[in-house]
């Protein structure tokens, strides 16, 4: 099968990147000992927007910058790789603000069929949408602070990134 244009771009762009790559010496643990949980939204460039240089931090991205989805990675980041701080950063204009679980399940049913709907059980059919941005940040930070998997010594804060301005603001 011939590569897609996206795959061709990956290879070409990577060749350019690799030709001047000089950071293969960086250590496995993040140098600045922190992790960022943020959304997978294509309008967010965490390195540029949040001042993260290669090797500084773990960046965990998922739909909505969701703490529950990120928990497994956060435990690995903290327990195995020594991070001591978590920045949870959601954003304005997030798609997770635009639907309810029933809407997403309905689309799966319509587009993929009943067998696919059955597989939603892997995450209890909870796409974890939210109706209010700041409240979702507070809820996720509270979830992480209450988790026995995250030690009390880990600093946890919650933020909102504004896709319209590129600015972040502290929520909790």
UniProtKB/TrEMBL annotation:
Reversible hydration of carbon dioxide. Belongs to the beta-class carbonic anhydrase family. Its cofactor is Zn(2+). One of its GO terms (molecular function) is zinc ion binding. Its EC number is 4.2.1.1. It catalyses: hydrogencarbonate + H(+) = CO2 + H2O. Binds 1 zinc ion per subunit. The keyword Transport does not apply. Zn(2+) binds at residues 39, 41, 91, 94. It is an enzyme of class 4 (lyase). This is Carbonic anhydrase.
């Amino acid at each position: 099968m011939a590569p897609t244009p996206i795959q061709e771009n990956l290879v070409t762009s990577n060749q350019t990147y690799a030709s001047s790559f000089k950071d293969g010496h960086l250590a496995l643990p993040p140098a600045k000992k922190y992790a960022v949980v943020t959304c997978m939204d294509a309008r967010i460039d965490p390195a540029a927007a949040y001042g993260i240089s290669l090797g500084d931090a773990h960046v965990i991205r998922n739909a909505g910058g969701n703490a529950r989805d990120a928990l497994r990675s956060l435990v690995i980041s903290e327990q195995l790789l020594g991070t001591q701080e978590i920045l949870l950063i959601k954003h304005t204009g997030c798609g997770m603000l635009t639907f309810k679980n029933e809407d997403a399940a309905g689309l799966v049913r319509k587009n993929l069929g009943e067998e696919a709907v059955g597989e939603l059980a892997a995450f209890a059919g909870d796409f974890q949408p939210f109706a209010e941005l700041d409240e979702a940040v507070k809820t996720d930070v509270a979830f992480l602070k209450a988790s026995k998997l995250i030690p009390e010594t880990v600093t946890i804060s919650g933020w909102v990134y504004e896709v319209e301005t590129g600015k972040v603001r502290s929520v909790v």
